[in-house]
């Protein structure tokens, strides 16, 4: 991927010299610290970087889809965008690498609020790759408490170190749960409904089950925090 400055106003962006996109320099300078710094540097010789195809600015490992999403956002971001989850993920990738901070913030928010939500493994991978710390612990927790084990594909995405960390978390959780198992087996869990808690046997069971669920959530959170602190 390379970027070409066609004039003082218009930027030409190309992917491996096969696709060329024109973008106004204004947007790049306004939204990206990376490009602001680049454009303040005087050219070493001849034309400034990006003024023509021969001086194209190389953007390593950028895909056509990522660039299309970025350009669409720069020109149409103030309007309603029909972006898919895949589009927001592509925008997160390119905005993180080239320091489009406000664009990145929007992508993070849109992914976090997307319905249906991104799966916990995908969230964890993105959080580590693009430095989104607020996603890490919830993603670890969701993976720990789900019944299904990691698939081979998920393990490949996460890498060995994270797989080992998750295995340690799940083992600790199983051990904690076995030590704090309720005295009454197979007690059903209910969502607590305080508006109808009249003190009858059913309401007491519901309240107890809700309290146990709260304790289990605290237990999982504590285990995740402890194992994360070991890294």
TrEMBL record:
Superkingdom of the source?
Answer: Eukaryota
InterPro entries reported in the protein's UniProt record: BTB/POZ_dom, SKP1/BTB/POZ_sf
Mind telling me which Pfam families this protein's record contains? BTB (PF00651)
User: Which residue ranges does UniProt annotate as crossing the membrane?
Assistant: none
Q: Which SMART domains match?
A: BTB
Gene3D superfamilies linked: Potassium Channel Kv1.1, Chain A
Q: Which residues form the BTB domain?
A: 7-83
What name goes with this protein?
BTB domain-containing protein
Name the species this protein comes from.
Postia placenta MAD-698-R-SB12
């Amino acid at each position: 991927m390379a970027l070409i400055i066609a004039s003082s106003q218009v930027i030409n962006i190309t992917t491996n010299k096969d696709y060329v996109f024109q973008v106004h320099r204004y947007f790049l300078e306004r939204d990206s610290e990376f490009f602001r710094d680049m454009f303040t540097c005087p050219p070493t010789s001849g034309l400034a970087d990006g003024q023509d195809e021969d001086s194209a600015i190389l953007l390593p490992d950028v895909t056509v889809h990522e660039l299309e999403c970025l350009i669409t956002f720069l020109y149409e971001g103030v309007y309603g965008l029909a972006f898919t989850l895949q589009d927001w993920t592509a925008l997160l990738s390119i905005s993180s690498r080239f320091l489009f901070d406000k664009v990145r913030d929007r992508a993070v928010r849109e992914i976090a609020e997307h319905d249906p939500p991104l799966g916990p493994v995908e969230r964890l991978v993105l959080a580590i790759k693009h430095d989104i710390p607020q996603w890490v612990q919830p993603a670890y927790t969701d993976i720990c408490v789900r019944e299904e084990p990691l698939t081979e594909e998920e393990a490949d995405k996460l890498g060995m170190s994270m797989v080992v960390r998750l295995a340690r978390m799940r083992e600790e959780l199983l051990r904690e749960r076995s030590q704090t198992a309720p005295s009454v087996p197979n007690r059903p869990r209910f969502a607590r409904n305080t508006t109808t808690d009249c003190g009858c046997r059913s309401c007491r069971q519901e309240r107890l089950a809700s309290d146990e669920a709260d304790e289990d959530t605290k237990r999982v959170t504590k285990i995740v925090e402890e194992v994360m602190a070991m890294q």
